[in-house]
Amino acid sequence: MLTKTDNATTITLWNGREVPRLGMGCWAIGGPFFAGDVPLGWGEVDDDESIEAIHRAVDLGIRFFDTASNYGAGHSEEVVGRAIGNRDDIVIATKFGFATDEKTKQATGAFADPAFIRKSAETSLRRLKRDRLDLLQFHLNDFPLEASDDVFDVLEALKAEGKIDAFGWSTDFPDRAARHAGCKGFVSIQHTMNVFEPVPAMVDVIEKNGLLSINRGPLAMGLLSGKFTPEKTVGATDVRATSLDWMVYFKDGRIAPEFAARLEAVRDLLATGGRTLTQGALAWLWARSPRTLPIPGFRTVAQVEENAGALEKGPLPRDVMARIDAALAGR
């Protein structure tokens, strides 16, 4: 369990380790993978550049990296493994539930049976070059509540066997977050959260149960980086070019107009105190709850440096948070 928050920009994890309240999300560095013709990655990547960026993050003090067994059909885990290996001063979180074919880069289904869970854990250990997985997260967002009991029984067994240190659920449903909160070893919820989606019900469950709030989408899939104009489009192999149901920030590869308007309403407020837009978005999350640990994605050293630079400025002031709430309420 998360035990305490020592100050605004560090957090103490379930294992007693104090780390900066910033992780790095490793979806993008996995490279392309697909469901048929539908891209699920973020386009082409340069592994050497990815590894250089990871090393720079470590140099800047980052100690939490989040990946998944399906990102790039396993390639993200392999890159993280090459860059970090079995260093015991760095926490690596990964996820299971979606199967992929390493050779074809195709998604092959979603599974949660005991044999699949165990095989996925072993594969992640091999790719990441770890003796034990620090945090293993269930990746199936809307998996049936009652059926999830069997899944977490397997995770408890893996913890008892020393294969994993802790486990959690990557889900946006508060009832699923609450279901296993009392289970020994259940320490975290990974969920969408950003300026546009403050998710009060999820935050309430997390704070009441002393869980770690791992924030995916902290930059709204890049929208809050400020690097996109209404005319700019993403590449054809970028997941943001799809029409998937959950792709709300972008439509047909461009910023969704309703979110472009919301961004303009808060742009100057997020830049308070000399922050970049990215740094303001991260600072908003730190001010939102003492349990938050955002995991912005990255592909370059420059992105890592900008993300890490937010730590020096800390959370947004309370009065700015109130003004952001008011600005968004008026949209």
UniProtKB/TrEMBL annotation:
UniProt cross-references to SUPFAM superfamilies, sorted A to Z: NAD(P)-linked oxidoreductase
One Pfam family hit: Aldo_ket_red
Gene Ontology terms, MF aspect: oxidoreductase activity
Record's keyword annotation contains Oxidoreductase: yes
UniProt entry keywords in alphabetical sequence: Oxidoreductase
CDD domains given in the database record: AKR_AKR11C1
Residue ranges occupied by any NADP-dependent oxidoreductase domain in the UniProt entry: 22-328
One cellular component (GO) term of this entry: cytosol
Chloroplast recorded as keyword: no
Entry protein name: Aryl-alcohol dehydrogenase-like predicted oxidoreductase
Organism: Rhizobium mongolense USDA 1844
